[in-house]
Amino acid sequence: MKAVLKIGGSLLFQNESRLDVEYIKSLGKEIQSIPPKKFQLAMVVGGGRAAREYIATARQLGASEAFCDELGIEIARQNARLLIAALGEMAYPVPPSTLEEAATTTMSNKIIVMGGIQPGQSTNAVAALLAERINAELLINATDVEGVYSEDPKINPTAIKYEEISVKHLKGLIKDESRAGKYELFDLNAINIIGRSKIPTIILSGRDPKNIMKALQGAKIGTKITYT
Prior knowledge:
This protein is an alpha/beta fold and 228 residues long. The protein has 8 helices and 7 strands. A 7-stranded mixed β-sheet has the order 3-2-1-4-6-7-5, with helices on both faces. Helix 1 packs across helix 3 (65-87), helix 2 (48-60) packs antiparallel against helix 3 (65-87) and helix 4 packs across helix 5. The longest helix has 23 residues, at 65-87. The chain starts with a strand and ends with a strand.
């Protein structure tokens, strides 16, 4: 099975500024335990809190949105390098910088790990494009919440978690926010990409790395996106 795993950048941090080394190690070990003969895995990681902090500072200094996007891309690529270090010999040693390079690199039998690739495009959209490009059978979006909720569960603890949600319904929940650093759970560009190719997609909590293997094995976990 070909699968693309999107790792939310915020998962890599303990707080606003400190990287969570133990989490990165545990994520690396979990990915290493996935049988490579059964699952061909490609990974995309976001910039997370570090990217948002740099972007916010750049805006205060008068930087353009394109400049801020480029800054976020650089930080996401550094996060990708951390995951490459955690995966060791199983990982391709350099984050691909284009979609074509990523697709070609998947033939190396190594796990590719990449960040962003161009301004104006979230790493969620990159993961969706990569899944589309390599004909992935599953896209897993590992974030810091259990799935898709009716409202932000961090603000409203009574928010309802959806076991399944249609693309149309999901679009209604997502705000069209295109500023650098503002792509969170999913964005409309990413939704449109998975919608046009009907890529099987699951949004789940990545706080427990074991959830990734559960999703690969077909367990009912997180929120499944449907196309009916």
